[in-house]
């Protein structure tokens, strides 16, 4: 719990941020503040000194304290992005993507890989071999089977993260990894920062845990604005940042190594834990695998989450978490959530990885997804309204589409579903109004004639829909 002076400091800071004090304006005297808040002069003095150390206010000899011009200018610069804590309303746009896929809708927005892109035959063989090891597969293995944890440790070492296996916990996919990390780090009502737009599962997790969210917008050629992140961490008490630094969903963007280090430094200054979701990191489009934030972590503050759901099998739910210095609290969350993950899944995945064909499979998969994304982008830009913008992903198989005007995207979504066409409206990925003119398109399935017809169908519905001009987050 905060000391009294810290609580007072937070109240004064909010007044500064809300522009209750004009640019460079004088803060009430220490005596007046003490009367206002019903505390001692000593407490007020401690609060003001704390705010001065944070750059929120400035002291002038024999005159008093003033609202920092720098902070108020920052407020104005970032006000359009609304980087303030918000409650997640009950009407978050939620859809069951898996159910839509099973209903045979054309999967323009699904992030579930097509069966033909997955190593199903090899996994089947690995599952059969695992099933024969009944003494292992019918047991609990917490935090994971030795073979699985060792295989993960080797993969982590290949991307620059030191691991012995004993510092890793097996999870049921990356979604569970993120969920238990949030549960371990936060309490009801705490504030968490996320990139905007962001993976819908993050929004759902925050809502379930009754947390507040600060959305940090995208910026040109990157999944998150570092300037706005720094502003938010400086002005709000943020417990954690959830971010995909590589091939983020839904933009497909990655941060440069320099920006990754800057992000870590920003969070370290304000003691903000980083929850890194790197589930698309292996599906890069460039020459080499992008560095995860965890590889740059020197004090264990980055919690690394990933899975094989996008590369081996979504149904196996084979994930893991490298909790760093938060190992014990996260291990407790996992243990009391569901004790352990199915041993047969872990043994089968470890067997598949040991066969040595995974990297060859990844190389083939990357080429397919990059080709699919390029084809779909060309189709969208050809048929959608003039001025439509599409991100150019650094990896993965999804990209973000921004229309030149706002339409009723959810109405178009319902129309498309009636024609068995599924895409993902922008409101799935953000609570910001800026997402109203956006959608996610996915190349996780073959670009068939039916898919091409579906793009044209969406373009026609967008052209027919009444529209208005609004601002939007447009990553370039």
Automatic annotation (TrEMBL):
Keywords: Aminotransferase, DNA-binding, Pyridoxal phosphate, Transcription, Transcription regulation, Transferase
UniProt similarity note: In the C-terminal section; belongs to the class-I pyridoxal-phosphate-dependent aminotransferase family.
Pfam family name, one: GntR
Molecular-function GO terms, alphabetical: DNA binding; DNA-binding transcription factor activity; pyridoxal phosphate binding; transaminase activity
Superkingdom per UniProt: Bacteria
Organism: Marinobacter confluentis
Protein name: PLP-dependent aminotransferase family protein
HTH gntR-type domain span: 2-70
